[in-house]
Amino acid sequence: MSFEEPAMRRGRVVRQKTGRPRGRHGMLVIAGQLGVVLLILGIWQLVSGRWIDYFLISNPIDVIVKLVEVSGDSAMHRHTLITAQELVLGWSLGASCGAVLGWALGAVKIVGEILEPILNAINGIPKVALAPMMLLWFGLGMGSKVAIASMIVFFLVFFNVYSGMRNVPKPLVEVARAMGASRMYVVRKVVVPSVAVPLFAGLKAGVSFAMIGVIAGEFISADEGLGYYSMTATQQFDPAGLFAALVIIVAMVVAGSAIIGAFEKRALKWQS
How far apart (Å, rounded) are the C-alpha atoms in residues 23 and 39? Predict the structure, then answer.
């Protein structure tokens, strides 16, 4: 019997043994997550009306009932659609501009060194504090909310991509060029893999930050959207409506992050 057969058998045994724990581990993680959620909901239901006033936190049962009620409400559909459009447009604009500028300044070192401190200073300004200026520039409609969200996402993606470009392994680039690799080959095989990980990290984090910008803009001035609905529910002392809107907002953020995560897994197969 050759030496290859035992090695192959050992390889199969290792895969079979490691496959089961991974499956069990995944099920254990899901069960743990579900348990934590149920525990939080149970505590919430228990303390509502007993230790904490109902009008402050409502309770899970009433929130579920409210979600069922608004699921058939055309006005709620409109609020959700408006917020979703603002989220997608703000995220897309900020992410694309941030990625392009981060790549450009990372590729041209001298320009990056000149502009990086200026962009850092601008990034230090609280974005929500600029919301009134965005309303002045872009009006009270969707444009101002998109501008706020895109500004927040822009800096997040920019600094992730810029950092990735600055951390491209130079020895690997020099070796590839010494072996006659073309510029496009170096970009595709060395630069892109170095930037991909921080880029996707910024894109996923940008979803939640974009939602913060959108909701903040709707809080300040809007007559539609989930932020406006939440503010109205608060003014009407409707905690169930407020938490129902929050559930929808969280679901939108989770869905957006999951979509980007699916693209990330396909794009980063080379890591596995």
Answer: 24
For residues 15-40, average pLDDT: 75
Let me know the angle formed at the C-alpha of 211 by 48 and 127, rounded to the nearest 5 degrees. Answer: 110
Sign of the dihedral defined by the CA atoms of residues 178, 182, 188, 192, in that order? positive
Rounded CA separation 45/3 (Å):
63
Tokens at residue 54, please?
């109902």
CA distance 165 to 156: 15
pLDDT exceeds cutoff 80 at 96? yes
| Angle (deg, nearest 10), helices 226-235 and 239-267 | 160
pLDDT of 19 above 60:
no
Torsion sign (Cα): 250, 253, 259, 260: negative
H helices present in the chain, as ranges = 4-47, 54-57, 60-71, 74-107, 109-123, 131-138, 142-166, 170-178, 183-186, 192-220, 226-235, 239-267
pLDDT tens by residue, 137-147: 888 889 999 99
Cα 140 to the chain's mean position, in Å? 25
Q: Where do we find the tokens 């408006």?
A: 82
Phi, psi dihedral angles at 167 (to 5 degrees):
-105, 15
Fold of 54-271: MetI-like fold (1.10.3720)
Cβ-Cβ contacts under 8 Å for 206 (sequence gap 6 or more): 91, 94, 95, 152, 153, 156, 157
